[in-house]
Amino acid sequence: MSRLVPDDAPGFIRANTRLLPVPHAPEIRLHVADEATALWQKTEDELQAIGLPPPFWAFAWAGGQALARYLLDHPETVAGRRVLDFASGSGLAAIAAALAGAAAVEASDLDPFAIPAIRLNAEANGVAALITPVRADLIGSVPEAELILAADIFYERDLAGAVSDWLGGLHARGKTVLIGDPGRAYLPRERLEQVATYEVPVTRALEDAAVKRSHVWRFRD
Question: Which Gene3D superfamilies match (predicted)?
Fold first, then answer.
């Protein structure tokens, strides 16, 4: 575990979140925060640091919920396959993949709190043995996984461009790439086609809506 994380990161996460069903995928429970700003401040206070990333790992975002719902409803997409959940956050899509029958799931994220959060959430859903959390920058790599998942990642221009090119390259290599996204600003729509659409309940404070129309996307051939 990173030295940037408190010695008792699981305890910190449990103390500042609640284990609740995911609104659009209630088969899954996650440790989620009631309010982003308060948890963000507590995280910075705990680490005595300023400028930490928002606690993306503490919420069930719209794209992740859509992707999780799709995997649970279409287990043939994932069954028996090795899966990478990129920028996993809470581990929502990774957990859905494991529940849908994946052979093994790697859940990557750069946030040091996301790694213990993914472990806790995987344990809460009985799939800890199938999910390996990894703190690493995988952009540019060629993972062994046959199925690549990415949700809610296209919110910042430079990151979106790098991720789009990387995922597009993996698709060209024959990997299956599925993206969960409600249509954020830098989603490369011209390179994608919709696979499924859902009306996803979300937190108004985060998404400025009570329900967000969210989609599962794949790259065009």
Answer: Vaccinia Virus protein VP39 (3.40.50.150)
